[in-house]
Write a structure and sequence with these properties.
By secondary structure, the chain is α/β, with parallel strands linked by helices. The protein has a domain at 74-266. Helix content is 47%, strand content 16%. The protein contains 12 helices and 9 strands. The protein has helices spanning 2-8, 12-29, 31-43, 48-63, 65-71, 74-78, 87-94, 109-120, 136-146, 158-169, 202-210, 245-264, and strands at residues 81-84, 99-102, 126-130, 153-155, 173-176, 187-192, 195-200, 213-221, 228-234. The strands form 2 sheets. Strands 1-9-8-2-5-3-4 form a 7-stranded mixed beta sheet, sandwiched between helices. α2 packs across α4 and α10 (158-169) packs parallel to α11 (202-210).
């Protein structure tokens, strides 16, 4: 914790420079990481120049965490934020409609949540779903560092889901990572860049039970610590109203197609090393195209 706090005081530009080197070090030291990152990117049709840049970006995401958790005050972060295309989001917030905000493993996804609360939190707080660390001290530090008055956190369990439902029923917003592999029974198989990927149904169920509007935020990390650009967009098409198995697969497909579109806009900032295609425990693995073993 002492080292973490010490590093948090370093300039963001320096942290990003060091993070880029750490990203390449992780790449060089882990054959499994290298294979997964390259395979996932190539399956998505990403050129080598883009997935190679993503190696350094993954390291920058890790290196900027101490600054984000401990030093990035609201004023300091606000000065580094720029918004793009927020009109649809502005309209939804102005209408007082509950929101389900989807953010992929891309750029600085923690900044996306902070940026939303800085702009809209006083009107519409945002409850963020997260997976608590296993170690108690780290978990307590994580919770204390991330929690903000207008950004409560919800653990990724049944209690957290109930907390998010309560927030939506009060007309508030919730945020989650739709490309995170859910536990068995909480997802369906749907294509993601042409490959079967176990995809969460939570976002769809939250929207269906509360009438919430689904929208997308992604955070682009600018070079050399210059700041962040928040991009707002909508789903490629509306989610289905049904709740049967076919409708759940259709909804997951729509969300995955939306994530594909967002990722293609800047593939160098996506975490291609994330094990997106892993099956949850006890789940039956569907047949996969040759080459994605």
């Amino acid at each position: 914790m002492f080292v973490f706090r010490w590093i948090s005081g370093w300039p963001l530009r320096l942290l990003h420079a060091i993070g880029g080197l750490l990203g390449w070090l992780a790449w060089l030291c882990s054959p499994t990481y290298r294979r997964r990152l390259r395979l996932n990117a190539e399956l998505a049709g990403v050129p080598a120049s883009a997935w190679r840049r993503s190696i350094a970006e993954a390291g920058r995401m890790v290196a900027e965490t101490p600054w984000l958790w401990l030093r990035a005050t609201d004023d300091a972060l606000s000065r580094k934020l720029t918004w793009r295309n927020p009109e649809a989001l502005e309209a939804a917030v102005a209408a007082g409609r509950p929101l389900v905000i989807l953010t992929p493993h891309m750029g600085s996804f923690e900044v996306a949540a902070r940026a939303y609360t800085l702009r809209y939190g006083a009107v519409q707080p945002l409850t963020v779903l997260y997976r608590p660390a296993r170690q108690r001290l780290l978990r307590e530090f994580q919770e204390a560092s991330r929690k903000r008055p207008t950004m409560p956190t919800a653990p990724a369990n049944l209690a957290g889901v109930r907390q998010m439902l309560r927030a939506l029923k009060k007309g508030e917003a919730v945020g989650l990572l739709p490309d995170q592999v859910p536990p068995q029974g909480q997802g369906v198989w749907a294509p993601f860049f042409g490959q079967p990927a176990y995809t969460m149904t939570l976002a769809t169920r939250l929207a269906q039970q509360t009438g919430a509007h689904c929208t997308v935020l992604r955070c682009e990390r600018l070079p050399r610590g210059a700041g962040y650009v928040i991009h707002s967009s909508e789903l490629v098409r509306p989610l289905p109203a049904g709740t049967d198995a076919a409708a759940q697969v259709e909804a997951a497909t729509i969300i995955n197609e939306t994530m594909e579109q967002v990722i293609k806009s800047d593939p160098a900032q996506y975490l291609w090393g994330y094990n997106r295609y892993k099956p949850p425990r006890a789940a039956e693995t569907p047949p996969r195209p040759e080459g994605n073993e």
